[in-house]
Amino acid sequence: MKKIRLSRQLKVDLTGYAFILPNIIGVCLFTLFPMIFSLIISFTNWDYTKGIGNWDFIGLKNFVDMWQDGWFTSSLFNTIIFAVGVVPVTVFLALVLAVIIDKYCVARLPMRLALFMPYISNIVAVAIVWVMMYSPWGPFTQMVKLFGVENPPQWLGDTTWALPALMLMTVWSGVGYANMIYTSALQGLPQDVYEAADIDGAGEIQKFFKLTIPFLSPTTFFLIITTFITSFQVFAPIQIMTRGGPGTATNVLVYYIYTSAFTFYKMGYASAMSWILFLILFGITMFQWAGQKKWVSY
């Protein structure tokens, strides 16, 4: 029997493909196939408790009906408010803290670790701690009482304050990650430019706005995109702390997708909303990518 001889380059290629094959299989099984399947069932009225195949194709009905759904529109509005409030505060606060710690703090490493700990902590534990902090006996309520407010808000039980309360917790838990990214970027800034600015008599505030912010614009661009995506996908704090309440005050889009699929068993409708979420995030990312040419300098 004649042996098949493989060239050395082909052996190298096959070895490389063998190494990445498990990852390719994982991506196909857990990312590509679910995306295609969700796109298919978004055109159906599938109730997953009835099994695969027991569905009726209804065309674009799910995509049309959701805009007449008050829960969907309110959840989308809450998601936009949440993201618009969280993203700029998180990014700006992280930048300021990174510069202050890098320039003026003695114990830099402990400070950075303290800021980073909330990000790597278990979100369930973090959420429960913040629920207790927002309780009538918690520090937020007691602090408000110290300022003479006799009837402070119930925070998570108040339709006006519930979403801002969740936004505050999200900023607190996410600023550490952004701070670490900015800290890494600060180490690579050209010091000769800052020395020239010192010779020219530039102050710290001038150097921050004229040098540091422009130099860090690629890092800022990256953080804005990733933080926007994360904010639009917020779920765990809502599920643990408010369950979308009171009323629909904290009912965000991902939480409504979850309840539509696993509480109301409307898997097709939930898939359609998921694709709308994907298109929104894709559009925001492309808009930012197009606009970054005007303010990001590499």
Describe the fold and architecture:
Residues 76-288 form the ABC transmembrane type-1 domain. It is a multi-pass membrane protein. Belongs to the binding-protein-dependent transport system permease family. The structure is a single chain. The chain is an all-alpha fold. The chain folds into 2 domains: 8-43; 60-293, MetI-like (MetI-like fold). Helix content is 70%, strand content 0%. It is built from 13 helices and no strands. It has helices spanning 8-41, 61-65, 70-104, 108-120, 123-133, 139-146, 162-186, 191-199, 204-215, 217-232, 236-242, 253-262, 267-291. The longest helix is centred in the N-terminal third of the chain and has 35 residues, at 70-104. 25% of the residues are buried.
Q: What is the total tally of β strands?
A: 0
Going by CATH, the architecture of the largest domain would be: Orthogonal Bundle
* Computed CA radius of gyration, to the nearest angstrom: 25 Å
Q: Just give the CATH class of the largest domain.
A: Mainly Alpha
What brief labels describe this structure?
about 300 residues; mainly alpha; MetI-like fold; 2 domains; about 70% helix; globular
Provide a quick synopsis of the model:
The protein is mostly helical and 298 residues long.
Structural topology:
Elements: H1 8-41, H2 61-65, H3 70-104, H4 108-120, H5 123-133, H6 139-146, H7 162-186, H8 191-199, H9 204-215, H10 217-232, H11 236-242, H12 253-262, H13 267-291
Helix pairs in contact: 3-7, 3-10, 3-12, 4-7, 5-11, 10-13, 12-13
